[in-house]
Amino acid sequence: QLQLVESGGGLVQPGGSLRLSCAGSGFTSDAVPIGWFRQAPGKEREGVSCISNSDNSTYYADSVKGRFTISRDNAKNTVYLQMNSLKPEDTAVYLCLAPCSSSLDPQEGFDYWGQGTQVTVSS
To answer: Using CB atoms within 10 A of its CB, is residue 15 exposed (0-12), middle (13-18) or buried (19+)?
Structure first.
């Protein structure tokens, strides 16, 4: 079965950091661009970041630029999202989806997806 498995979510105070992991299962993650998306209660899904599989180019939503960093470790078949300076408005379920594009369009068709991991930023 081809899937992505997210981990690393949790509760963190404003200003804190978390690192999310997205592990590929059943396929090699460097075969496709993989992205992080998030969905908060009552809000539409939004694109957060995407990393290409060709040249490791990275793309970020304006709301996270300078705070979040996406990376991949092909040897571990895993994509990471390092989140620093977290804000309450970053609270959401974070999902990894593939393939993604530089537009971070949350509505495009995805072939691979995970179950999501909850990130809560609160004091």
So the answer is: exposed
**C-alpha closest to that of 83 among 100, 112, 61, 102:** 61
φ, ψ dihedrals at 32, nearest 5°: -140, 155
pLDDT digits (tens, 9 = 90+) for 26-46: 777 778 899 999 999 999 999
Is the pLDDT score of 16 beyond 80?
Answer: yes
Whether residue 63 contacts residue 49, with contact meaning beta carbons closer than 8 Å, is answered with: no
Q: Which residue has the tokens 């793309």?
A: 59
Specify whether the CB–CB gap between 49 and 35 falls below 8 A: yes
Q: Give the model's confidence band at 2: pLDDT under 50 very low, under 70 low, under 90 confident, else very high.
A: low
Cβ atoms of residues 70 and 61 within 8 Å = no
Report pLDDT for 1. 62
| Cα dihedral across residues 102, 103, 104, 109: positive or negative | negative
